[in-house]
């Protein structure tokens, strides 16, 4: 069963096409890692798949409400505690009871998975960059969504946390989920396939005219 | 959507949330006017309804840019856009939270501040009625302006320029209701207009603001 199918996709950043003609299928239990130099359009492609911007051309086929998106900003409120932040997202996505950090429920499991139990009551403002990142990734676990779309998930994580996150992804894949990510480091995932975007770089000379009126505003 | 409302209310009351700032600004404005125009009631009484409504308007304006800008900065807005709740619902809930933390305290404090401006006690019910009916439109129109300017740096001034002209009808009918109440006439007509404006704004703006947010998230 495929969770995500992308056909002949073209995405644009600031009105200019970044990559075009990208096609891939992501099966349940598999991960796809986007590779390519800076600026090729990995983030734009991920935002398009997450539904934050419309594709310029091509199709994205997946179920509604399948995507859990995690990017450079973790969406944390500094005035709230670690468990409070997570409980909020759990309630929004309705993936957990949001019962705080007492070890039961989706929030407790997510805190344990990312080794945040000891910090459950600490305000998010008092976390280090790596700890914030771990909390942002723990949010993925409480969404209950099958398709994780991850943009550089390992930024500011130490080696132990990267291993921990790798284990979380592996558990997610084993449970029938899948992951689409852009990362420059090796997470050691046997289930993962690489997709190099370099051959798909949009050639400026090939299509002068925008595909549609809206492309100018995309 | 209830968790989002609860989170916004919690954030407003925590450190740095800005709860009470609008009322304090309203108080200072109403306290400054007698210094400017002189304390005798003959000078203050005719302008009191206008000053009170202008004060409410400006106090409301103070916190408008927080509606979406903070969520945009920390990435929450991207995550809310991928959450199961519709963006229109997000807009409506955040405008409601803004009204509960800004508009409602202004309504509660207005009779007291009316005393500073020598507003006769007979006009207090009409002051309260016009503010209760009119301030929801201020928060909702403000949410629209905030959605348009969300990605801009230093968008606060632009937001004021965009939103203040939209406040004109509410201001006209709000002050007119109090003035008619003061003169013993029937304030029903301006109050009905005020209610009509608020109802139309509450019904239509969430869709417009959500569309503006979608464009700004790209």
TrEMBL record, chain A:
Entry keyword set: ATP-binding, Cytochrome c-type biogenesis, Membrane, Nucleotide-binding, Translocase, Transport
A Pfam cross-reference name: ABC_tran
Gene3D superfamilies registered for this protein in UniProt:
P-loop containing nucleotide triphosphate hydrolases
The record's GO molecular-function terms, alphabetically, read:
ATP binding
Query: Quick check: keyword ATP-binding in the entry?
Result: yes
Q: Does the keyword Membrane apply?
A: yes
User: Out of the domains of life, which is the source?
Assistant: Bacteria
Q: Which residues form the ABC transporter domain?
A: 4-218
Q: What is this protein called?
A: Heme ABC exporter ATP-binding protein CcmA
Organism in which the protein naturally occurs = Paracoccus spongiarum
UniProtKB/TrEMBL annotation, chain B:
* InterPro entries the UniProt entry points to: Cyt_c_biogenesis_CcmB, Cyt_c_CcmB_bac
Q: Which UniProt keywords apply?
A: Cell inner membrane, Cell membrane, Cytochrome c-type biogenesis, Membrane, Transmembrane, Transmembrane helix, Transport
Segments crossing the lipid bilayer? 12-35, 47-64, 96-120, 126-150, 157-178, 190-213
Determine the domain of life of the protein's source: Bacteria
Localisation: Cell inner membrane
Signal peptide (residue range): none
Q: How does it sit in the membrane?
A: Multi-pass membrane protein
Q: Name one Pfam family in it.
A: CcmB
Report the protein's function.
Required for the export of heme to the periplasm for the biogenesis of c-type cytochromes.
Question: What protein family is recorded?
Answer: Belongs to the CcmB/CycW/HelB family.
What is the protein's given name?
Answer: Heme exporter protein B
Give the organism, scientific name.
Paracoccus spongiarum
Gene name, please? ccmB
């Amino acid at each position: 069963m495929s969770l995500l199918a992308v056909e002949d996709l073209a995405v644009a950043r600031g009105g200019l096409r970044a990559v075009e003609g990208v096609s891939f299928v992501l099966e349940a239990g598999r991960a796809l890692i986007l590779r390519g130099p800076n600026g090729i359009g990995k983030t734009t492609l991920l935002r398009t798949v997450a539904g934050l911007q419309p594709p310029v051309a091509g199709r994205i086929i997946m179920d509604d409400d399948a995507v859990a998106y995690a990017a450079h900003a973790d969406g944390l409120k500094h005035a709230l505690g670690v468990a409070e932040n997570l409980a909020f997202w759990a309630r929004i996505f309705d993936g957990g009871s949001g019962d705080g950090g007492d070890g039961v429920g989706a929030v407790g499991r997510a805190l344990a998975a990312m080794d945040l139990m000891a910090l459950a009551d600490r305000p998010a403002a008092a976390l280090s960059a790596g700890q914030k990142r771990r909390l942002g990734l723990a949010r993925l676990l409480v969404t209950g969504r099958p398709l994780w779309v991850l943009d550089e998930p390992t930024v500011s994580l130490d080696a132990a946390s990267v291993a921990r996150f790798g284990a979380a992804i592996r558990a997610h894949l084993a449970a029938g989920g899948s992951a689409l990510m852009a990362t420059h480091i090796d997470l050691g995932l046997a289930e993962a396939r690489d997709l190099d975007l370099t051959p798909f770089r949009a050639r400026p000379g090939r299509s002068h005219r925008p595909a549609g009126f809206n492309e100018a505003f995309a | 959507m209830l968790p989002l409302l609860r989170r916004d209310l919690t954030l407003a009351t925590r450190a740095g949330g800005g709860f009470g700032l609008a009322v304090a600004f309203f108080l200072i404005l109403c306290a400054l006017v007698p210094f400017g125009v002189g304390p005798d009631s003959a000078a203050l009484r005719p302008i009191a309804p206008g000053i009170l409504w202008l004060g409410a308007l400006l106090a409301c304006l103070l916190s408008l840019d927080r509606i979406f800008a903070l969520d945009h900065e920390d990435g929450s807005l991207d995550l809310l856009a991928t959450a199961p709740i519709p963006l229109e619902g997000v807009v409506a809930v955040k405008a409601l939270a803004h009204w509960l933390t800004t508009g409602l305290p202004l309504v509660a404090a207005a009779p007291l501040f009316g005393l500073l401006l020598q507003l006769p006690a007979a006009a207090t019910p009409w002051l309260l009625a016009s503010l209760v009916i009119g301030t929801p439109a201020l928060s909702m129109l403000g949410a629209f302006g905030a959605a348009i300017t969300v990605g801009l740096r230093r968008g606060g001034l632009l937001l004021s320029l965009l939103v203040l002209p939209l406040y004109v009808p509410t201001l006209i009918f709000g002050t007119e209701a109090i003035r008619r109440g003061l003169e013993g006439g029937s304030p029903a007509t301006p109050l009905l207009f005020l209610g009509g404006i608020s109802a139309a704004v509450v019904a239509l703006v969430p869709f417009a603001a959500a569309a503006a947010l979608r464009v700004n998230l790209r």
